[in-house]
Design goal:
445 residues; alpha+beta; six-stranded mixed beta sheet; five-stranded mixed beta sheet
Length: 445
């Protein structure tokens, strides 16, 4: 039998089986003891019956005028006779027998005391110096029937008690492990960004060290991640001002110089500074995705957020560069609007940057997904699986930081939703498709 996977199931099964075996062994021992005691009682009854009947029979035989007459005692009414008897003289002649006694059931007298045949338990006694003997017999089937009734009497309550006991054991174990289940649920239900402490004072002493160790690991992990996010955000933020100043000076130099060689070098510096500006902006977004609160208590209509993002890109891509499809009804979600804007901006920018330009980028917003599709050659499956890694640009030769899809994946993980990438795009022979699942509406108590 396969053991249950849960501690609650294992304890309930072990205790239930243990109690069941204990009850059965106790019932067997009780029935064995009762059978021994009943045999003693029945033997005592046989002996007492013989000793009560024998004096009366002896007086009756002595008062008879004729010797050797056999007499069967009549019964006043029909009844089941468990004890039968036969009285014989010293010559073995039957003088008196009970109404249900059969001679074949009573072997010849061989001495006083108990004797047992294949079918009966007998007691022999004698009077008048052994000239009169009595044998009292009880069928062994009677004792067996009484023993069966005792066993049934013990077993019937167990049929009810054992299931009730098993339910009781399961209930007690379930109640006792309730703090452990709360601890397990708190760990399994929290998001990947939730590193707060778990557990409370109701945990059993055996589980408290585990909870303390888990909380210690979560605390150290939280401090490490916070330090990493702070460094990334601060470094990217502090880069903005000097990079912007250097870019302005470079552009001024390009406007003022007449030296073509210096102007060419300044243009290269301008490209590098713009790339550094975009990289710092992506790093700030990544820190926001990994450290911020990505779901709010109130719902927002994501259509208006996507409309503003599309307006920014349409000025860059032109009126025919992006084809958007938005639903008529509001798209309500508890995803933070800023986080959704970062998702939409990165997916659309990635599509414009890596698409072939032969067809407009398709942006489709539904009640539960944001889908961005661009044309271009298909991406190999082994390359597709690693596109969400940081600074991974796949096989693209276009300009980019390799952080766009990583940022979207970080937001998906933090919001507990999924990001699915398809290449070729679904229903198309080529292209690339990104499907971002939108979280549901906020729960209102």
């Amino acid at each position: 039998m396969r053991m249950p996977g849960s501690l609650q199931g294992r304890l309930a099964l072990a205790l239930g089986l243990g109690l069941t075996v204990l009850w059965l062994v106790t019932a067997w021992a009780t029935s064995t003891l009762l059978r021994s005691e009943m045999n003693e009682v029945f033997d005592s009854t046989l002996e007492e019956t013989a000793q009560r009947i024998l004096p009366l029979v002896a007086m009756d035989i002595i008062s008879r005028e004729e010797e050797g007459i056999s007499q069967r005692i009549a019964t006043l009414r029909e009844h089941e006779e468990f004890f039968t008897y036969i009285v014989r003289d010293d010559q073995g002649r039957v003088l008196i027998r009970s109404h249900a006694a059969e001679d074949a059931d009573f072997p010849a007298f061989e001495g006083m005391g108990f004797r047992q045949t294949a079918t009966h338990r007998l007691y022999y006694d004698a009077a008048l110096q052994g000239t009169i003997t009595i044998a009292v017999a009880e069928p062994l089937s009677h004792r067996a029937e009484v023993a069966r009734e005792v066993v049934v009497g013990l077993a019937l309550p167990l049929i009810i008690v054992i299931p009730l006991g098993l339910f009781g054991v399961f209930g007690i174990v379930r109640f006792s492990l309730r703090p452990v289940r709360r601890f397990s649920t708190a760990l399994s239900s929290r998001g990947s960004r939730d590193l707060s402490a778990v557990g409370d004072g109701t945990l059993p002493n055996e589980i408290k060290p585990v909870a303390e160790a888990v909380n210690d690991v979560l605390s150290r992990l939280g401090r490490t991640l916070e330090a990493e996010r702070s460094f990334t955000a601060n470094a990217a933020h502090e880069l903005r001002t000097p990079v912007a100043a250097a870019l302005a000076q470079t552009q001024r130099l390009m406007a003022e110089t007449s030296d073509s060689i210096a102007a060419g070098r300044a243009a290269e510096i301008e490209v590098a500074l713009k790339r550094l500006t975009r990289l710092s902006e992506k790093l700030i977004q990544l820190a926001r995705a990994e450290g911020g609160r990505l779901r709010s208590d109130a719902d927002s209509d994501l259509r208006s957020v996507l409309t503003m993002v599309l307006a920014d890109f349409e000025r860059l891509a032109g009126p025919d560069g992006i084809h958007s499809t938005l639903p008529v009804d509001p798209v309500l979600s508890n995803l933070d609007p800023d986080a959704f804007a970062i998702v939409a901006r990165n997916l659309i920018e990635n599509a414009l940057r890596h698409g072939s330009g032969g067809a407009p980028v398709q942006v489709v917003l539904t009640s539960d997904t944001l889908v961005v599709v661009n044309d271009g050659p298909s991406v190999a499956q082994e390359t597709l699986a690693g596109l969400t890694a940081r600074f991974n640009r796949g096989q693209s030769v276009s300009d980019g930081s390799g952080l766009g899809l990583s940022i979207v994946q970080a937001i998906a993980d933090g919001a507990q939703v999924t990001l699915k990438l398809h290449s070729p795009a679904q229903g198309q022979p080529d292209g690339f498709e990104a499907v971002f699942q939108l979280p549901g509406r906020a729960q209102i108590d």
